[in-house]
C-alpha cells in the first residue's frame, strides 16, 4: 500500500492536473501517513495575525516551502503528499490530515494494527453460557427473563418476532411510502412515512413510567441515576426519568421506528441524545442476549429427540448494534455510559476487560491542546478530547461484564468511524476485506452525521451499501438458531436506523429516504429554521443574492461555475475590487476554480484544508496587505481551523455554507478590518432553487419563499443585529 501511495505522491500538481482518481487510489491516500504533514501542530494565531511579522520568521517556519508561485500555499514542496497526488483524491479521501488532530503518535491512524481480545472468548460466548451461570440469583433472573420475553407488549419481542409475509416484503421493496404529519410538544413537526402502516397518526406519550418501557434489568434502576445530570437542568420535570426531548425521542426509538433528528447540537442537547440512544442500544442487546442464554438452558434440559426448531433467537452473525460516530472521544463517552448503566451501585462494579488499554487509545491528554487558542464555543464542543477519526472497536456485553476489543464476530456492539468501517469493508477486488459482520445488524445509529460531510460522505454511502447482506461465510453459526428473517435475507426490513445531525442536508436526507427499509416506518423531524443566520451579522453590509437557473440537480455544479466566470467574476477583476474572499464549500469546486484562476493568471492566493502551516501564513499575510486580489477559501478549512481572515472587503459565497452560522461568522470577519473602508464592503451569494434548505437557514423561511418565487436578484441590507 505504501508503495502505491509513494508513487501517487510523486505526481506533479500541474495546472491541468487529472481530476479523476480510482477509488482504490483514494483509499490508499487516506491510509498513507506522512510524518512531515502529520507533525504539524495547530498554529498560534497571535503569530499570524500581526501584519508586522518578519519575513524571516515566516520563511524559517516553512523552510521546506520553496517558491511562492501564485501564493505558494500548496504548490511544489509546500504541498502535503496527498495534495501532490491529485486534487480530486483530496476531495473524497477521509479528512484525517485535515481535521487538526495531532495523530502522528497514534499508531491506529495509519493502517490499523488491530488488537483483539482473544483471552475472554469462552467467557463471553453466547453459545456456551447459560442464564444461571450469568446471574447471581438464577431462579429470579430466569423468572424475570421468561416473564419479560413472554410479554406480548415488549417492543423488542413485538418487532423481532413479527413474521413478515412475502407479499408484505414485496410491497416494502416496490411500493412508495405514504406520509402523514403530526406535531409533538418538544420535537415539533414530524413526518411519519410507511409502506405497510397507512394513515397512522403518531402521538407523543405525555408521561412515561419506566416500568412500562420494558427496560431490561438493571437499566430500570440505573437509568434515572445516570440521567440525573440532565433532569436537574429541566424546570419542574414532569418525568422522573427522561427530559422532554429524551422522552419523545425514546418513544420513537422504543417502538423500533427509524428516526431522523436534524437538530442535534454539540453545545446543548448532544449528550442528552447520546444517553437516550445508548439506553436503547444497551436495552436491545441485553434482551437479545438474555433470550439466547435462556434458550441455551432450555435446549440443554430438553429431552433427546424433541423438536429443537423452536429456539430461533439470533442472526447469521452476532453483532446487533452498529454505532457510527466521528471521533474517538465519542466512542469513549459511549462506553462510559454503557458502564454506568450496567453498574447497579458502587458495590456492584462490572468487570470491564481491557479498560486500561481503551482509555489509553481513546482518551486524550489535556496538555496536548495549545492553551492560547480561542475558538467559538461550538468548535470547542465538537473537537473536545481525542479527535482521531480512524477507529473501530467491538464490544461484547453480558449482564455483569463487558469485553472491549472483542473480535467483531464475538461482539454485540461495534463502535466505529466511517473511515474505520471503510478500511475494513474495503473495495471490490481487494483480497483483504470483510463485511459479513454487518449481515445481522438490527440497530444502526449514525450520530453527528453532518460532520461526515466535512470528512468523507462516500464512506457513509459505502457502509450503507454493505450492511444487511447475506454473509459469504457461515462463521460457525448454528443455523437451527437463526431467525427466519435472516435466512430469508430480510434483515434490512427489520433494521432500525437512528440518524442524528445538526442540520438538514440533501445528502443526509437521501440516506434516510433511500437506505432505510424498516417495516415499522420512518419518523423524520422537519421543523423550519427558527432564526436566520443573517440576523447575526454584526457589520453594516449589503447582501446581494444572485439566482442561477439550473435545469436539474445534476447540472447545478456546471451551471454555477459558468455563471460565476461569466457573470460574477468580471465585476471583481478591476483592481478597485481588491481584498475579495471567495468562500467555496465543495473541494471539487475549489480545485476547479483554482485551476481556472491559474489558467487566467489572476492575482490570487488560496487556502484549503491541506494547505501547510507556512502556506496559510503567507496567504493570510499577502491577502491582508493587498498583494493578492483574491483568496480562494474552502469550507472544510474553516470547519477545522476557524481562523479569522483579516482584510476582507468583498465577499463572495460561491455556494451557501453547509452550516448556516458560518455565513454570519465569515461576514463578521470584516469587522476585523479598517473601519474607514466600510462603505466599500460587499457580499454576493450564489444560489439556485435546489438550495432551499440552506437558504432558509441563512435568510429565514419567509424570505426564502419570496426569493424562490422571484427570478430576480435579491438585495438585502443588514445594519447589524437585525
TrEMBL record:
It is found in: Nucleus, Nucleolus. PANTHER family: ORF PROTEIN-RELATED, U3 SMALL NUCLEOLAR RNA-ASSOCIATED PROTEIN 25 HOMOLOG. The gene is Diexf. Transmembrane segments: none annotated. This is U3 small nucleolar RNA-associated protein 25 homolog. GO terms for cellular component: small-subunit processome. Residues 533-717 form the UTP25 C-terminal domain. It comes from Ciccaba nigrolineata. Residues 83-95 have a biased composition (Polar residues). One of its GO terms (molecular function) is rRNA binding. Keywords: Developmental protein, Nucleus, Phosphoprotein. Component of the ribosomal small subunit processome for the biogenesis of ribosomes, functions in pre-ribosomal RNA (pre-rRNA) processing. Essential for embryonic development in part through the regulation of p53 pathway. Controls the expansion growth of digestive organs and liver. Also involved in the sympathetic neuronal development. Mediates, with CAPN3, the proteasome-independent degradation of p53/TP53. Interacts with CAPN3; the interaction is required for CAPN3 translocation to the nucleolus. Residues 256-523 form the UTP25 NTP hydrolase-like domain. InterPro entries: P-loop_NTPase, UTP25, UTP25_C, UTP25_NTPase-like. GO terms for biological process: maturation of SSU-rRNA from tricistronic rRNA transcript (SSU-rRNA, 5.8S rRNA, LSU-rRNA). Residues 1-160, 294-313 are annotated as: Disordered. Belongs to the UTP25 family. Residues 1-10, 298-313 have a biased composition (Basic and acidic residues). The keyword Phosphoprotein applies. It holds the Pfam family UTP25_NTPase-like. Residues 37-73 have a biased composition (Acidic residues). The keyword Oxidoreductase does not apply. The lineage of its organism: Eukaryota, Metazoa, Chordata, Craniata, Vertebrata.
Amino acid at each position: 500500500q505504501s508503495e502505491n501511495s509513494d508513487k501517487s505522491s510523486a505526481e506533479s500538481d500541474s495546472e491541468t492536473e487529472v481530476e479523476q482518481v480510482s477509488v482504490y487510489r483514494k483509499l490508499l491516500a487516506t491510509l498513507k501517513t506522512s510524518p512531515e504533514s502529520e507533525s504539524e501542530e495547530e498554529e498560534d494565531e497571535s503569530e499570524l495575525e500581526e501584519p508586522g511579522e518578519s519575513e524571516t520568521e515566516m520563511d524559517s517556519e516553512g523552510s521546506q516551502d520553496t517558491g511562492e508561485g501564485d501564493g505558494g500555499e500548496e504548490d511544489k514542496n509546500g504541498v502535503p503528499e496527498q495534495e501532490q497526488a491529485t486534487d480530486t483524491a483530496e476531495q473524497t479521501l477521509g479528512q484525517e490530515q485535515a481535521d487538526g488532530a495531532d495523530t502522528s503518535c497514534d499508531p491506529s491512524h495509519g493502517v490499523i494494527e488491530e488488537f483483539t481480545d482473544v483471552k475472554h472468548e469462552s467467557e463471553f460466548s453466547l453459545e456456551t453460557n447459560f442464564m444461571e451461570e450469568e446471574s447471581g440469583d438464577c431462579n429470579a433472573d430466569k423468572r424475570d427473563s421468561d416473564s419479560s420475553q413472554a410479554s406480548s407488549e415488549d417492543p423488542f419481542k413485538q418487532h423481532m418476532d413479527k413474521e413478515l409475509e412475502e407479499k408484505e416484503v414485496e410491497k416494502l421493496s416496490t411500493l412508495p411510502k405514504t406520509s402523514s404529519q403530526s406535531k409533538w410538544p418538544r420535537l415539533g413537526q414530524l413526518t411519519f412515512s410507511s409502506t405497510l402502516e397507512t394513515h397512522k397518526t403518531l402521538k407523543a406519550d405525555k408521561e412515561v413510567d419506566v416500568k412500562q418501557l420494558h427496560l431490561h434489568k438493571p437499566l430500570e434502576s440505573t437509568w434515572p441515576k445516570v440521567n440525573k445530570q440532565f433532569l436537574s437542568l429541566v424546570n419542574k420535570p414532569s418525568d422522573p426519568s427522561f427530559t422532554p426531548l429524551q422522552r419523545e425521542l425514546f418513544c420513537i426509538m422504543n417502538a423500533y421506528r427509524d428516526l431522523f433528528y436534524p437538530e442535534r447540537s454539540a453545545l446543548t442537547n448532544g449528550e442528552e441524545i447520546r444517553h437516550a440512544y445508548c439506553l436503547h442500544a444497551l436495552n436491545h442487546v441485553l434482551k437479545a442476549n438474555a433470550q439466547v442464554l435462556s434458550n441455551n438452558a432450555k435446549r440443554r434440559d430438553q429431552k433427546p429427540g424433541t423438536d429443537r426448531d423452536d429456539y430461533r433467537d439470533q442472526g447469521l452473525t452476532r453483532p446487533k448494534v452498529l454505532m457510527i460516530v466521528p471521533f474517538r472521544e465519542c466512542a469513549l463517552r459511549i462506553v462510559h455510559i454503557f458502564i454506568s448503566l450496567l453498574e447497579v451501585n458502587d458495590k456492584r462494579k462490572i468487570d470491564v476487560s481491557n479498560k486500561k488499554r481503551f482509555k489509553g487509545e481513546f482518551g486524550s491528554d489535556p496538555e496536548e491542546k495549545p492553551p492560547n487558542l480561542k475558538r467559538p464555543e461550538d468548535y470547542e464542543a465538537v473537537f473536545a478530547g481525542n479527535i482521531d477519526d480512524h477507529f473501530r472497536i467491538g464490544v461484547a456485553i453480558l449482564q455483569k461484564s463487558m469485553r472491549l476489543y472483542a473480535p467483531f464476530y464475538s461482539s454485540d456492539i461495534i463502535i466505529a468511524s466511517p473511515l474505520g468501517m471503510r478500511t475494513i469493508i474495503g473495495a471490490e477486488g481487494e483480497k483483504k476485506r470483510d463485511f459479513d459482520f454487518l449481515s445481522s445488524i438490527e440497530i444502526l445509529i449514525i450520530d453527528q452525521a453532518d460532520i461526515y460531510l466535512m470528512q468523507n460522505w462516500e464512506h457513509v454511502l459505502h457502509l450503507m451499501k454493505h450492511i444487511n447482506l447475506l454473509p459469504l461465510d457461515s462463521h460457525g453459526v448454528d443455523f437451527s438458531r437463526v431467525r427466519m428473517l435472516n435466512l430469508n435475507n430480510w434483515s434490512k426490513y427489520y433494521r432500525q436506523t437512528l440518524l442524528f445531525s445538526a442540520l438538514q442536508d440533501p445528502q443526509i436526507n437521501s440516506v434516510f429516504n433511500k437506505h432505510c427499509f424498516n417495516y415499522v416506518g420512518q419518523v423524520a423531524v422537519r421543523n423550519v429554521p427558527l432564526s436566520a443566520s443573517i440576523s447575526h451579522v454584526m457589520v453594516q453590509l449589503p447582501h446581494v443574492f444572485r439566482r442561477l437557473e439550473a435545469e436539474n440537480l445534476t447540472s447545478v455544479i456546471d451551471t454555477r461555475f459558468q455563471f460565476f466566470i461569466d457573470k460574477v467574476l468580471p465585476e471583481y477583476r478591476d483592481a478597485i475590487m481588491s481584498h475579495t474572499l471567495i468562500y467555496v464549500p465543495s473541494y471539487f469546486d475549489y480545485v476547479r476554480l483554482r485551476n481556472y484562476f491559474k489558467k487566467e493568471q489572476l492575482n490570487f492566493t488560496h487556502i484549503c484544508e491541506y494547505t501547510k502551516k507556512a502556506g496559510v501564513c503567507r496567504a493570510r499575510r499577502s491577502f491582508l496587505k493587498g498583494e493578492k486580489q483574491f483568496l480562494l477559501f474552502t469550507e472544510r478549512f474553516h470547519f477545522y481551523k476557524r481562523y479569522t481572515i483579516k482584510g476582507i472587503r468583498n465577499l463572495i459565497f460561491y455556494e451557501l455554507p453547509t452550516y448556516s452560522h458560518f455565513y454570519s461568522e465569515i461576514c463578521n470577519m470584516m469587522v476585523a478590518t479598517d473601519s474607514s473602508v466600510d462603505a466599500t464592503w460587499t457580499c454576493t451569494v450564489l444560489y439556485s432553487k435546489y438550495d432551499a434548505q440552506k437558504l432558509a437557514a441563512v435568510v429565514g423561511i419567509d424570505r426564502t419563499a419570496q426569493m424562490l418565487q422571484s427570478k430576480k436578484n435579491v438585495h438585502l441590507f443588514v445594519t447589524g443585529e437585525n
